[in-house]
Design brief:
alpha/beta, 12 helices, single chain
């Protein structure tokens, strides 16, 4: 069985979207997808079979204050407006294909972080409803600029805090041949979070997630090493950008978005045959 792991990285996720759009257009499919943060927010379009949707709505609403920005943060507590970005856009403005999502047999998980336990939560999404969109929102809710999302007894934030590259989880679920799309180039090493004073202040009620945030760089670098190890062993196909992706976490320049997406499409085209061979697609 085959799996696809999509790390987050905010708007760097458009690199991954470019790659997977090329693959969708070529008919490549996986048995399971685990998305983290932007990997969840953009990766859901794989299950709904909608290539091009992620870049389209991000560019269209790039400068719309209803969608994201400091005005949204000050008014709602979320830099990406919860109601507009995660509910109105897919329902009214760039329609999410709920029927296609629900009928696609692709197993789809999102990763969130439980702020009380400081542990990852893996949620399988099978049917589109209000809570489905909220789980995706929770996975992408970055600390400091997002409110805690309460769902099914959990208090949740960005999954990247506790499991940034869930390859081990994919293997634990029984998927043996996996593709991992990273949004940082080879040789990248994550350093300590420079925003820890703000994280300690904003999440002071949740000491376990503060600790996880403090140690995130250690977890992330260990996961990178694990990915390299599995890549060498031959059961994991890894794709990385050739160099650092020059785009902000909160980006309002549609031209920059298109550039990162196009870099991804180019990488998707370059790796298309190799991925088919790896997945043994005829």
């Amino acid at each position: 069985m085959t799996g696809l792991v999509l790390e987050g990285g905010a708007m760097r996720g458009l690199f991954s979207a470019g790659i997977t759009d090329v693959w969708m257009e070529a008919g490549i499919e996986f048995d399971c997808l685990i998305g983290v943060s932007a990997g969840a927010a953009f990766g859901c379009n794989i299950k709904s079979r909608q290539p091009g949707r992620a870049i389209r709505y991000n560019k269209h609403f790039a400068r719309d204050p209803r969608y994201s920005g400091w005005r949204s943060l000050l008014k709602s507590g979320d830099i990406f407006n919860a109601k507009f970005a995660y509910h109105e856009v897919p329902a009214k403005y760039d329609i999410f294909d709920n029927e296609a999502f629900d009928s696609n047999p692709l197993v789809f998980y999102v990763v969130c972080t439980d702020v009380e336990s400081g542990q990852p939560v893996y949620k399988q999404l099978t049917k589109t409803d209000y809570d489905c969109y909220e789980w995706i929102r929770a996975s992408a809710s970055m600390p400091i600029v997002s409110k805690v999302v309460e769902l099914e007894g959990h208090k949740l934030l960005d999954g990247g805090i506790t499991d940034s590259i869930p390859l081990a989880k994919m293997e634990e679920l029984g998927y043996e041949r996996n593709v991992v799309i990273l949004t940082q180039p080879e040789g990248y090493v994550k350093g300590p979070n420079r925003l820890m004073p703000l994280i300690r202040l904003s999440l002071r009620k949740y000491p376990n997630v503060v600790k996880a945030s403090r140690d995130r760089h250690l977890m992330y670098n260990q996961q990178l090493e694990y990915v390299r190890q599995r890549e060498k062993e031959g059961n994991t196909f890894v794709i990385r950008p050739d160099s650092a992706l020059e785009i902000g976490h909160i980006e309002h320049d549609a031209t920059k978005m298109q550039k990162i997406y196009d870099i991804g499409r180019k990488k998707g085209e370059e790796t298309l045959q190799a991925v088919k061979d790896f997945l043994r697609v005829v």
